[in-house]
Amino acid sequence: MSLFSAVAMAPRDPILGLNEQFNADTNPAKVNLGVGVYYDENGKLPLLRCVAEAEAGMQAAPKARGYLPIDGIAAYDKAVQGLVFGADSDILKAGRVATVQAIGGTGGLKIGADFLQKLNPAAKVLISDPSWENHRALFTNAGFTVDAYPYYDAENRGINFAGMLAALNAAPARTVVVLHACCHNPTGYDLTAAQWEQVVAAVKARGLVAFLDMAYQGFGEGIAEDGAVIQQFLAAGLDFFVSTSFSKSFSLYGERVGALSVVCASADETAKVLSQLKIVIRTNYSNPPTHGAQVVATVLGTPALRSMWEEELAGMRVRIKAMRGALVAALKAAGVTADLEFVTRQKGMFSYSGLNAAQMQRLRSEFGIYGVDSGRICVAALNEKNLPAVAAAMAAVMR
Ligand code: PLP
């Protein structure tokens, strides 16, 4: 008996497995739509100009790399707060938000999950059905029982809002509800402002704890528009959690730049919450890394670089929308008669295409088009060169 003889093989990450299959495929026309990253019109991962300029400035005046404070770079945390809550917002003036730098959006979720687990170990967590595949595992590993609230309505190509609301209204007080602030991953379907208002009312009436995951701010309708839901929670006077990711919006995936913000009832509570978040960080990885957060703080804090970022982000958003429209047009031109309007209604990088697992497998085996078996495709990986082949293949399997 060796020390590890009882260790079972963990299941493969389904999306990484798909990537491996894609890499091994010898079809010269292959297209990878399984990814969760934005590619530019040439199919390349972009290095944003604002990032390159910020880095050039940093390289021109190199600095020694000491430990950061446990909660990260102060200017970075402040910039995150401004972006999420509005730089002039009353909540920030009142000192009622605790923000810590985190290792990507995932890190922000994990710090929040660990803090909530200590605060209320018996609480359940509700995630959307379906959700980003790591939500369930992350909250389960933090010690929670995780259930799902209804979200995707396959039949009507939209959201089962009545089902979602009923689940929230049946949840016990203190249940943690994980909500996608914008650009729902994987479906692409977002709530309307009026629906959010009802969610906010249910969270308030039932005493639930909202945890807003904002991994795509700026990819839906715009930075302020995508953050509007935060204002709705603030207006209701709720305490809540927001995780932020800059992986996509700055194309800084590998730098792991994110944050967690906790809205509290008073400045006094905020100081106490912050002290506990720091304990979570200290006992996990001590303090965060420097480079990515310094880049983001520099861009957000330098007016010229900030406008450049806003333009570059708008460019990504507009290109994704154009690809949605072009995909629908190409499918129609290829003879697909079904109503495909839902593709242009969806927001963000993904589309639940409505294709089933068998059709997705056919796309892979016959055409070298790789998407997830759930029917999710990454619209941000489409471009004018690969679109005709993708549309022709999709039309073939839809026939
Ligand atoms: N939350 C959602 C909904 C996501 O889609 C992602 C990334 O795909 C994340 C969180 C994680 O972001 P990060 O890569 O910054 O950890």
Question: Could you characterize the architecture of this molecule?
Answer:
- This protein has helices at residues 14-24, 49-60, 74-85, 90-93, 104-119, 133-141, 161-169, 193-206, 223-226, 228-235, 267-284, 291-301, 303-333, 341-345, 357-367, 387-398, and strands spanning 31-32, 97-103, 124-129, 145-150, 152-153, 158-159, 176-180, 209-214, 241-245, 257-263, 350-352, 369-370, 376-378.
- By secondary structure, the chain is of the alpha/beta class.
- It has a seven-stranded mixed β-sheet. A two-stranded parallel ribbon has the order 1-12. Strands 5-6 form a two-stranded antiparallel sheet.
- The longest helix has 31 residues, at 303-333.
- The model has no long low-confidence stretch (mean pLDDT 96).
- Pyridoxal-5'-phosphate binds next to helix 5.
Question: Which key phrases capture this entry?
Answer:
14% strand, two-stranded parallel sheet, globular, 399 residues, alpha/beta
